Amino acid sequence: MKTISGLFTDHYQLSMAEGYFSAGRKDDRVNFDYFFRKNPFGSGFTIFAGLQVLFNLIEDFQYDSDDIDFLYKRGFHDDFLDFLKNFRFRGSIYAPKEGEVIFPTESILSVEGNIIEAQLLETLLLNTLNYQSLIATKANRLRQSAGKRSVMEFGMRRAQGWAAIHGSRAAVIGGADSTSNVQSAYIYDLDSSGTQAHSWVQSFDDELTAFRTFAQLRPKKCVLLVDTYHTLNSGVPNAIKVAKEMQQQGHQLFGIRLDSGDLAYLSKKARIMLDKAGLPEVKIVASNQLDEYLIKSLIHQGAKIDVFGVGTNLITARDDGALDGVYKLSAVNDRPTIKLSEDVAKVTLPGKKKVIRYLNGNGEFYADGILLSEDDPDDVDMIYHPQYADKKSMVNGLEKENLTSKVFENGNVLTAKKSIGEISEYRSLRVSQLADEYKRFEYPHIYKVGLSSNLIQLRMDMIAESKRSK
Amino acid sequence: MKTISGLFTDHYQLSMAEGYFSAGRKDDRVNFDYFFRKNPFGSGFTIFAGLQVLFNLIEDFQYDSDDIDFLYKRGFHDDFLDFLKNFRFRGSIYAPKEGEVIFPTESILSVEGNIIEAQLLETLLLNTLNYQSLIATKANRLRQSAGKRSVMEFGMRRAQGWAAIHGSRAAVIGGADSTSNVQSAYIYDLDSSGTQAHSWVQSFDDELTAFRTFAQLRPKKCVLLVDTYHTLNSGVPNAIKVAKEMQQQGHQLFGIRLDSGDLAYLSKKARIMLDKAGLPEVKIVASNQLDEYLIKSLIHQGAKIDVFGVGTNLITARDDGALDGVYKLSAVNDRPTIKLSEDVAKVTLPGKKKVIRYLNGNGEFYADGILLSEDDPDDVDMIYHPQYADKKSMVNGLEKENLTSKVFENGNVLTAKKSIGEISEYRSLRVSQLADEYKRFEYPHIYKVGLSSNLIQLRMDMIAESKRSK
């Protein structure tokens, strides 16, 4: 399924690429880092997602003759366009596994390559990783609130257009059990599921006939929507009637769905009615503008809900609709580069780097260190706060992991392809290695991310040099 | 460019479709209405967008043998799948023109068809119209704040994944002058534009060389990014040097771009520096987390900005990331249907309907009336508030327009294809027909949308009948 081409980029990437080409710099080697500055939703961490999709899209990131004609009409020059005809991204990518727990500031992903390929890829890379990491993080918050209850992703109709295609994938990575989105289920082999709509019930002369017909057709996993007319006076009693009829035919009603009204009150009443009718196994599905806070509150109120259907607030990450990931140049031909800013937090980290995760003896994450790639992790005893150099942490003797490794080289993916289920399991494992204080919704503990002394020194030197040169 | 198939739908649409098929109801005729309940962003109105894209996607909304195999594995039955093999949407669509000004409650778009095609289309239709209408509405607010200054849409890297593809289109419909998104520019023939990134400047040994090289390559519409090191001490002075060199070669620097810091202060200082250097024609482009409120404030502060580049806040509609459009069944085999709710505002409007726009003598919109399709508009003298029947408006003698017409029938689009420029012009015309009180950002005047007495009566009768039947 090819939708994108090398045109999936910002106009200025092509202008700059042409510039590098014309300036005879096409073989310059560069390093770009992908990182973000702030966890979304006030979370204490972020889930890394989108990497395997990026690998697939890199394959499509080429220019066919129609693309070339278009660029010619838009003023790009023949010699550059001839070069683009054979363009393929052949750089290297260093990254964590999909599903990894990641934090602000750290160079999560690095691209090494020639200056044109690394520049042209920027927009596609940011577009892919920012959105999927955002949604996986949101889904993980829902998963946290729902505990052992199920979460269905429902949001395709309210998704931001084709965002739905990758959004449902990211939701399952983050912890949703299934999606209503059949297109994504097809592409990514996700569990797809659904119940029924009000239109089904309305389209019959009466609610009981609507329920009965649906149950006859889909006796397995049948869920009946009980709020089209009146939930407790009509919907639940009719569902109970049909559940009893199903029992006589050897089937079992899977559940009922509440989609409006006071979900705490209605679910408790419905649970009592179902239990009294001898139907304790019939589940209650609830939906209607749910998010992680409402789910928490419903559970706290003792709502009898087994499955939460979450739509808009998950697929659009409505309360914080973008991850602010950026892609910054950190080296040209092995010369480190820096971007200054009047805002100290926005000064970039120069040079090629790697990220080390330090663990406590019990397997819990303790801190992440950003080191220069030539730093030997065994020689790094201390990491320093990115802005306040007097804040530092001893890391010697701690267990260490390389957070990133080379995952893509010369057009080839170097890691085994994982199913979405496997990625979600890895996410679950890694989240479990994070202490609870980092996971609370309100003022989570801030996870330590520090720099090696060599990186601190390089940055200080480059800032000083830049001031001298004025 | 085919990305979607008939699988671009919610799982339950396929379950229900199979249900209708198995129940022998595949030839039942139905009517569904698309409407929304709340303008986004607290706006006084919404811009209708996405219709031509929907027409294109309907062509792709089919099931090939891979799709059928997939559905078979997911438990759908052979006879239904045989039916799906030849499935095409052949229903009729009634809608306003793209770019129309629309309001909550009104049946903006109606689908008439057999029960299976009308049901299956729901998710695709909502996904397409909700997002594009949201973004066009946001862009129109930016356009309103920017006045005669330019607005560039910049958000591809922060867009919700492939939302970018249609988001940039909708942004231009709503009033953006251009987009950075080359993929959308290619598909929809939009103006694409861009400046340069910090990485360009960083990749050279010094800023002046970076600027000079770019200017030599792109002497037309050259914009230099001046904040990589120090805006006023280095960026602007270097840009001025290059502008002078360009003049000697018969070229003119188009502009400079500010992307950080205090945009009001920096733009004023930069303007003075440029003017003193005899470069009054060099424009100032500004970007960095802009939205309609910041743009208004910058202009109010006397900022010297000619072009606003808007990213995340436009393409994700960050402060209100979803339009709540729904698609509700209003008739089955010419029998009107209703969905009740404990929330009176959520009771649907039964039956087939049409929307009439009433105008004052001076061409300004006065009110919209929702009439039953059998109502003769010439006989409707009064329209009634949807909830408070004592609130009513005289409409006799007013100029009238049919807001909607049949635009799609039997697989064919009935209207001439419009360019995005034409759609944007229509949007601009229609917004100009709306009085200023509806356009302010704070507590806009609420536009009148009323029902005909026959529609009020039908709804009352159906509610009463539903109560009797219990």
TrEMBL record, chains A, B:
<keyword id="KW-0808">Transferase</keyword>
<dbReference type="GO" id="GO:0005829">
    <property type="term" value="C:cytosol"/>
</dbReference>
<keyword id="KW-0662">Pyridine nucleotide biosynthesis</keyword>
<keyword id="KW-0597">Phosphoprotein</keyword>
<dbReference type="Pfam" id="PF17767">
    <property type="entry name" value="NAPRTase_N"/>
</dbReference>
<dbReference type="InterPro" id="IPR013785">
    <property type="entry name" value="Aldolase_TIM"/>
</dbReference>
<dbReference type="InterPro" id="IPR036068">
    <property type="entry name" value="Nicotinate_pribotase-like_C"/>
</dbReference>
<dbReference type="InterPro" id="IPR007229">
    <property type="entry name" value="Nic_PRibTrfase-Fam"/>
</dbReference>
<feature type="domain" description="Nicotinate phosphoribosyltransferase N-terminal">
    <location>
        <begin position="7"/>
        <end position="130"/>
    </location>
</feature>
<dbReference type="Pfam" id="PF17956">
    <property type="entry name" value="NAPRTase_C"/>
</dbReference>
<feature type="domain" description="Nicotinate phosphoribosyltransferase C-terminal">
    <location>
        <begin position="352"/>
        <end position="458"/>
    </location>
</feature>
<feature type="domain" description="Nicotinate/nicotinamide phosphoribosyltransferase">
    <location>
        <begin position="151"/>
        <end position="346"/>
    </location>
</feature>
<dbReference type="Pfam" id="PF04095">
    <property type="entry name" value="NAPRTase"/>
</dbReference>
<dbReference type="GO" id="GO:0034355">
    <property type="term" value="P:NAD+ biosynthetic process via the salvage pathway"/>
</dbReference>
<dbReference type="InterPro" id="IPR006405">
    <property type="entry name" value="Nic_PRibTrfase_pncB"/>
</dbReference>
<comment type="pathway">
    <text>Cofactor biosynthesis; NAD(+) biosynthesis; nicotinate D-ribonucleotide from nicotinate: step 1/1.</text>
</comment>
<dbReference type="InterPro" id="IPR041525">
    <property type="entry name" value="N/Namide_PRibTrfase"/>
</dbReference>
<comment type="similarity">
    <text>Belongs to the NAPRTase family.</text>
</comment>
<comment type="function">
    <text>Catalyzes the first step in the biosynthesis of NAD from nicotinic acid, the ATP-dependent synthesis of beta-nicotinate D-ribonucleotide from nicotinate and 5-phospho-D-ribose 1-phosphate.</text>
</comment>
<protein>
    <recommendedName>
        <fullName>Nicotinate phosphoribosyltransferase</fullName>
        <ecNumber>6.3.4.21</ecNumber>
    </recommendedName>
</protein>
<dbReference type="GO" id="GO:0004516">
    <property type="term" value="F:nicotinate phosphoribosyltransferase activity"/>
</dbReference>
<dbReference type="InterPro" id="IPR041619">
    <property type="entry name" value="NAPRTase_C"/>
</dbReference>
<dbReference type="InterPro" id="IPR040727">
    <property type="entry name" value="NAPRTase_N"/>
</dbReference>
<keyword id="KW-0328">Glycosyltransferase</keyword>
<dbReference type="GO" id="GO:0047280">
    <property type="term" value="F:nicotinamide phosphoribosyltransferase activity"/>
</dbReference>
<keyword id="KW-0436">Ligase</keyword>
